[in-house]
């Protein structure tokens, strides 16, 4: 009898704590992904403005890659954490970003983090 009651109490308490811990982990992980995607989007928008008006064939290839990255970011399912190909799509965005950095001759060595940039004013 006591064994069953103890088990039930422990199960209920563990379930509650598991939900809290899972929610905290999900919030942190979601913030990291959102920050990373936002960084890629800002990078792409800035370069689109810089390259607008250039008409060379090389710049055309850069613009095509930029528009592809922006399209992938806009189609990314921000509001559906149960989307089964979320990590695959995120990997494709990362690969397209690296390709774009190569085309633009930019080193993608900056850090993307939720903690902030460490700048102070």
From TrEMBL:
* Signal peptide coordinates: none
Domain of life, per lineage: Eukaryota
Question: Which residue numbers delimit the Essential protein Yae1 N-terminal domain?
Answer: 6-44
In the record, the note on similarity to other proteins reads: Belongs to the LTO1 family.
Protein name (record):
ORAV1 protein
Source species: Crocuta crocuta (Spotted hyena)
Chain's gene name = Oraov1
